[in-house]
Design a protein that fits this description.
The protein is α/β, with parallel strands linked by helices. It folds into three domains: about 5-195, 3-Layer(aba) Sandwich (Rossmann fold); about 235-350, AICAR transformylase, duplication domain (Cytidine Deaminase, domain 2), CATH 3.40.140; about 385-505, Cytidine Deaminase, domain 2 (3-Layer(aba) Sandwich), CATH 3.40.140. The chain contains 19 helices and 21 strands. The protein has helices at about 15-25, 35-45, 50-55, 70-75, 85-90, 105-110, 120-125, 130-140, 150-160, 165-195, 250-260, 285-295, 300, 315-320, 335-340, 395-410, 435-445, 465-475, 490-500, and strands spanning about 5-10, 30-35, 50, 100-105, 145, 205-210, 220-225, 240, 270-275, 275-280, 305-310, 325-330, 350, 360-365, 370-375, 385, 415-420, 425-430, 455-460, 475-480, 500-505. The strands form five sheets. A six-stranded mixed beta sheet has the order 8-13-12-11-9-10. Strand 14 (about 360-365) and strand 15 form a beta hairpin. The radius of gyration is 30 Å and the shape is elongated.
Length: about 525
Amino acid sequence: MSKLKRALLSVSDKSGIVELARGLAALGVEILSTGGTAQLLRKESVPVTEVAAVTGFPEMLDGRVKTLHPKIHAGLLAKREEPSHLAALRAAGIEPIDLVVVNLYPFQTTVADPACRLEDAVENIDIGGPAMLRSAAKNYPSVAVVVDPADYARLLEELRGAGISAATRFALAKKAFAHTAAYDGAIANYLSALDSVYPEVLTLQFQKLQDLRYGENPHQSGAFYREARPAAGTLALYRQVQGKELSYNNIADADAAWECVKSFGEPACVIVKHANPCGVATGADLAEAYGKAFKTDPISAFGGILAFNRALDGATAAAVGKQFAEVIIAPRIEPDALKELSAKSNLRLLEIPLAHEVQPQDYKRVGGGLLVQASDSKPIRKEDLRVVTKRQPTDSQWSDLLFAWRVAKFVKSNAIVFCRDGMTLGVGAGQMSRVDSARIATAKAAAAKLPLAGSVAASDAFFPFRDGLDVLVDAGAAALIQPGGSVRDEEVIAAADERGAAMVFTGVRHFRH
């Protein structure tokens, strides 16, 4: 590769830029720069030439126009292997530029502030930066382009050796185009969202975290991506401290378990199998919560995903270690817990910072399109509920009803959940008819030898007929919680009164397909 002679450095994120500039200067590279970057380099005694001295035109319009000049862009776009391009540069007195190091005005950070004004957002739309990146990236065989400070060390290492390789140049160019695409998409999404939550054109960009061994099934390929700014405490921010590589299904099930467990304030454990909670419980501590959750369905818990909303301690880890689990998630894995589980080398242990933020929107891929909706994050409080029966729930039933309703939100529709004393007793999920889910939940409790007398039951949507309610009351449910809204609500309420059961309406449905 030809020797790198001139570099243009102009960055908003200045982390590592001084060290990079010093390394370039030591290699005899002439450094061009603008504005604040030039000031910083001069302050650090790094030789630098202002872009204005190259273009012969001073910065103007409060810095809006600095690098938009033929002496910059011709120096970037000229093909070094094309004699006519080099002749044109010589005739115009333009020197080639061999390296561009640019990152853009912090538009995404600016608009992430709820107090951001439109004028603040507009002032943080970079014009010259993306233009330089695109020019350099288009001409990547001749010009190296760097947008990420994480690539500075790699760049210097190659320059000190045989020069920047063709593979590195191409990789950096792809990264630059992805960077400008994400930047433009963020601007378009922000401006469109000022008029509508759902813009006419939706631009999404995710960064790959890892390739997966396969997808949902071995004949399918797969990968895991993270959005640019994931909500705090979401699965994509996990740190793996032990175990095999996560699979596609591990990730999907881990997300279901984590989203459920972090909705509880008290110590809680959630066990998920095939995207459905098969055991959920709260307790005075994690060990008690785990023991109760496991009792719900010990058979389904085999090979499950376990999530805790407190640091996993040694005592809980010792109890968990008696069962076969695929993944355990907690805000932190304590050293004594790690020691207890270290013999299970295949067991995946994940740490995720506990936060109660929710993603603002959910996405679902369909043939040829994408469904977008607001996340199901509406909180339900006791004062939001309406008792519709003659019988009022007792204080303990109120507590269990709220618990059951919280769990039902995370169970695939049609969902039925029996609960008592802060634990699930039986879960029926994903059936085509609600009465079948009620029967399955009853059968699950019977299989686990958990009596349902005096329990409560939650239904994620209304009962279309009284038959589902009758199944639940026959099994032992004394109080029920459901959204209401059926044309047969009065019939179902009358059935509850006839059976002596209490029933409350939430006015909110929790379908989860």
